[in-house]
Design goal:
5 helices; elongated
């Protein structure tokens, strides 16, 4: 038996589970159709920064806007929904 035989099990033990639900998805699901489409389009546009999207959302909806960090993580696909194209 190689000392690497149980490496996958070790990685699984060290891997953190993603949170209960993506904050960006929860936020987008609460928007009306026009607003959701606008947010999805902004998230998909790689010319727009996550910080800019956050500031624009914050100006429109206040404290319920997901943070720039959360938006960036969502756009990279590092959230629970694993989307890199906007809210799932």
């Amino acid at each position: 038996m190689s000392k690497w035989d149980d490496f996958v099990s070790e990685v699984e033990r060290e891997t953190f589970n993603r949170g209960p639900e993506c904050t960006v998805k929860v936020f987008a699901d609460g928007l009306d159709s026009d607003a959701r489409t606008a947010v999805v389009n902004a998230m998909s546009n790689r010319k727009l920064t996550s910080s800019g999207i956050y500031r624009a959302l914050r100006a429109r909806v206040g404290d319920i806007a997901p943070s720039a960090h959360t938006i960036n993580r969502h756009r990279r696909g590092d959230c629970k929904c694993g989307s890199d194209r906007g809210p799932a």
